[in-house]
Write a structure and sequence with these properties.
Length: 205
């Protein structure tokens, strides 16, 4: 498949949405064809699933229901949007992808990781990002940054230990998949992190 698939990962408030957008703008300004998208969501059907997933009223959602909804959203997104864009030679920048499920549902919810990996792989037809930025910050800093935002969603409301476990899972994933992961210190300034990311991406294209 042509194209380049870049994902951004990290705990809540790490700054990945900010960085994904800045990278997209940088590339578009240089006339490089790219698509900016996110998960859960990214297509009409996936956005409907996102609403169910993040709605605080669904506090009693069973963990397996949560897992399958994230995967349903991802299948639609992958086959409707990501794969066609890659086939057209575009750069696809995605704010969260399957590593989120390994970290949040695998480690956070304690669902057996090998199982999560297998069905995740099935849901995406085995599509793996070429490059994954893990923006790493301490969970206290991440949650503090989100305080200014009105209203937490269902996952953001989880206790601090949940976010700690998720961060740990991401760092393990990055260690185990060194060829595609780049760990970025999320405590730097927005501009500094952006430059670091651009330098890495330019080496790929
Ligand atoms: N989820 C998702 C799963 O459980 N399983 C899955 O498979 C998937 C795909 C999605 C939720 O779903 C869960 C994870 C999530 O809980 P969401 O609404 O899409 O929820 O939210 P998040 O992806 O968590 O993203 P956020 O927008 O909440 O946080 P970001 O992207 O980490 O941070 P960002 O860029 O919005 O920045 C947050 C704040 O910090 C500032 C920004 O200006 C902003 O105010 N900031 C910085 N401040 C200082 N220094 C920096 N370097 C900064 N960078 C950003």
């Amino acid at each position: 498949m042509e194209g380049l698939f870049i994902t951004f990962e990290g705990i809540e408030g790490c700054g990945k949405t900010t960085q994904a957008k800045l990278l997209y703008e940088y590339l578009i300004n240089r006339n490089i064809e790219c698509v900016l998208t996110h998960e859960p969501g990214g297509t009409l059907i996936s956005e409907k699933i996102r609403e169910i997933l993040l709605d605080k009223k669904n506090y009693n959602m069973v963990y397996l229901t949560e897992l399958f909804l994230y995967l349903a959203s991802r299948s639609q997104h992958t086959f409707e949007k990501i794969i066609p864009a890659l086939k057209n030679g575009k750069i696809v920048i995605c704010d969260r992808y399957f590593d989120s499920t390994l970290a949040y549902q695998g480690e956070g919810r304690n669902i057996p990781k090998q199982k999560v990996f297998e069905i995740n792989n099935f849901a995406t037809g085995g599509l793996i990002p070429h490059l994954t930025f893990l923006i790493d910050i301490n969970e206290d800093v991440g949650l503090e940054r989100l305080k200014e935002r009105k209203g937490k969603d269902r996952i953001e409301e989880e206790e601090i230990n949940f976010h700690k476990r998720v961060r740990g899972a991401y760092l393990t994933l990055a260690r185990e998949n060194k060829e595609r992961f780049r760990i970025i210190d999320g405590l730097g300034s927005i501009e500094h992190i952006h430059k670091e990311i651009v330098n890495i991406v330019l080496k790929f294209i």
